[in-house]
UniProtKB/TrEMBL annotation:
Single Gene Ontology MF annotation: DNA binding
CC annotations in GO: delta DNA polymerase complex
Pfam families recorded: DNA_pol_D_N (PF18018), DNA_pol_E_B (PF04042)
Keyword field: DNA replication, Nucleus
Chain ranges of the DNA polymerase delta subunit OB-fold domain: 44-171
CDD domains for this protein: MPP_PolD2_C
Domain DNA polymerase alpha/delta/epsilon subunit B: 191-398
Main localization category: nucleus
Protein's recorded name: DNA polymerase delta subunit 2
Record family assignment: Belongs to the DNA polymerase delta/II small subunit family.
Origin organism lineage: Eukaryota, Metazoa, Ecdysozoa, Arthropoda, Chelicerata
The keyword Nucleus is assigned to this record: yes
Signal peptide coordinates: none
Amino acid sequence: MTVNMVSENCNSPDTTLYERASSTYAYNWKRFFIKNEEGTFERQYASFYSSRLRISTDLLHQQIQKKWGPSANVKQLCDITGNEKAVIIGTIFKHMELHPSILKEISEEHNLIPQPVNEEFSGEDDFLILEDDLQRVVLCGNIDPQIHVTGVNIAVLGYTEDSGNFFVEDYCYCSVKDPDILPSLSIDKYVLLVSGFCLRKADGKFPIQLLIDLITGYVGDSQMQKKYSQLVRVIIAGNSIGKEEPDSYESKYLTRKPRRITSEGVRALDDFISQLVASVAVDIMPGEFDPASHLFPQKPLHICMFPKSSQYSTFNVVSNPYDATIDGVRFLGSSGQNIKNIRAYSKISDPLDIMQKTLDWAHMAPTAPDSLNSYPFPDDDPFIMSEYPHVYFCGNTSKMDYRFSENKSVMMIAIPKFLETFCAVTVNLRTLEVEPVIVSDEVL
């Protein structure tokens, strides 16, 4: 859909007023809030992996019974004798030669030739290691290292070779409950998803204003205004503030690269959102370049950034990841750091394919804390999926894309960077139908 400002609409005799549709709303992201004891770094991360494996074990046992029957020979590594066939439950560790290492960086810091910066770390020589509570073993056979990452909990069926490696004949992931049946809505209602405003200055952001005018009913004909009156919520999926590039002096002489957020960008964001929340409910998530902690899960943006918007009850600062139920439809998603990180440590490049793998793995961010910085949760893992959402989204991708998951129960959506594509996405709560919203000023 291309939306253009048409001056004739201002003189249109149609003066129909449309009332904004209402909706029920329940937030489920409490598990992503960091408690005081979890926000410290006095603990090691080993308990994080132990908690993940402990919680996933029951889900894996359910899938083992479904796939291999109740008589499957489930054992720990230390209990396997000879080359008996058995099922082992554990956590994958992916050995990667290209994996960044601070020790390697220190040993190479005196090299005269600068080393290239890698953004992808998966190589042909990578191999997988399975760890349980007591031992570890190298995996071989029918399992592809290029589509797995460190931190995935898995059950593998096979036997120990004479070399000591475990030959995998088959494997399975956690069993996850499908989402509830979609609620029966009498009318179409919509949620709009957008990410990547990347505001640095107040000027040059006409497409954002055009999108806001569309949502609030100042743009479009009567039919379009009627449709957008059924928009019940806007979810802003991170990177609302742009990344500041350091100057040449800082790049050359400072070891720690500063990330400065301009006050103009923050002020412009508040101005834009204050226009939205006067008409529709808005949830804003932090992203990779927003003024929030970079540790996953990210705490909500501070309310003091929004002196105008925070005066409205329709304005919500929320965590990243996001989890909420709108009119009975559960939305789960992130601003994109978890998907970006998995792409760097595997050979899976398409965001929707990566999202499908996280659904298969029943885990939003298995690479945390290995390569995705995270808090050291001592007793829980908030990223585990015990039940699928209806809508699963990822922000700040290079292009807009969507499709149903392999089991046809989850609508997966890749939300593009708005600064580059001028594209947002609407989801119909009644049907889960997805539609791009592209704003353009080409004919103005």
